[in-house]
Amino acid sequence: MIPLSTRMRPERLEEFVGQRHFLYEGSLFYHAIQSGSLDSAIFFGPSGTGKTTLARIIAREKDASFVEINASTTGTKELKEILSNAQDRFYGLMKETTCLYVDEVHRWNKLQQDSLLKALEEGVICFIGSTTENPYFSVNNAILSRVGNIYEFKRLETEDVQLLLRRAMKDEIRGFGRLGLKYEEDALHLLAQMSGGDCRRALDALGFIADNLPQGRSIDRELVSEAMQKQTTYYDKEEDKYNLLSALQKSIRGSDPDAAIHYLARLIDGGADLMMISRRLLVIASEDIGMAYPSAISIVTACVQAAQMVGFPEAQLNLAEAVILMASCPKSNTAKAALGEAMADLHRRKIDDVPAHLMDAHYAGASKLGRGLTYRYPHDYGGYVTQQYLPDDLYREGVQYYHPTENGSEAAFKKHLESLKEIDKKNGR
């Protein structure tokens, strides 16, 4: 039986889902595919993200002879035969370029990859290679220099995978539309979440469920959990993920790494979306750690980026590191509080203009308007000089938004700012 993921593979560019960072209507890449003018390219990224599907769509749009091979099963002898046939087709009566798609191109050694060079240079083939590894490390430089177009495929968003699942349920030709199967929307959502951005995995799991669905039963969350061989005991309702995210943030804020890692585990085990967790961790780094440990945002960003590159299940290690770090380090919400107070002033009162000496003076006529004339450049005074920065009314009132704590690195910032205020006092400010 043909797997559902194969049956539901998009055949037209308009059906393709995902990869909007480079493939969207109106983009150069989109237009190149539509016009059949796309040259050779390399696709790299995780499995189930559409690399093979897009290669087939490109070949169809180019109206070219299409040859698809897998580097793990195709040797040098078979490759030379393919290239010989492509050369005959190109220089013969047909005058046709062959579109050659090589899956897992990173599995070829240097000699095998170099076999493509002459055909690439002469335009005998339109080469599309796909790989799950970074091509800058796994593909020869000689190939890369001749291909030029390298596109990174990212894991699909949960909503994109859910769209494909819904399409399969309604399609009467390739999917289950004619069967009239009943399904719960949140079950498809859970299946999309559990797939980790791999649409092939999600569709084939749906195919397994549909083919073995007990008569009269709807596709529900319980069946999805069984099909994915994963229990979702802690994550039964849609609102649960927000409760768990809230508990995670409050545990980090409360400096309890054990509780924080517990709630992270529940989110991951419940199939929470990687991006959803990542976004919350980045917010926590600035909202709750803030100035007490300013490096936290950099470290957490690195952990989140690493998690997105490797994907689940390995990504959970990157997330765990970020969670434990933030739960264990000093806390300060002064950045959030300072911004909140400043925003509140903007919305509840009239505030004077920017002082004239701080206004932009990099244009002709600025001096005639009195802009920037009395500004003193702090670096000319050893790094600090007494002068007014706040608008006049706020300055007269001695408004202070940032109130540093004694926690972590912020204690040093507080001490430094207090020393600057002493300088101002000596200067009569």
Describe the protein's architecture and organization.
The chain is α/β, with parallel strands linked by helices and 429 residues long. It folds into 4 domains: 134 residues, P-loop containing nucleotide triphosphate hydrolases (Rossmann fold, 3-Layer(aba) Sandwich), CATH 3.40.50.300; 70 residues, Helicase, Ruva Protein, domain 3 (Orthogonal Bundle); 89 residues, Up-down Bundle (Zinc Finger, Delta Prime, domain 3); 93 residues, Orthogonal Bundle (post-AAA+ oligomerization domain-like), CATH 1.10.3710. The protein is 50% helix and 6% strand. It is built from 20 helices and 5 strands. It has a 5-stranded parallel beta sheet with strand order 2-3-4-1-5, with helices on both faces. Strand 2, helix 4 and strand 3 form a beta-alpha-beta unit. The radius of gyration is 29 Å and the shape is extended. The mean pLDDT is 88.
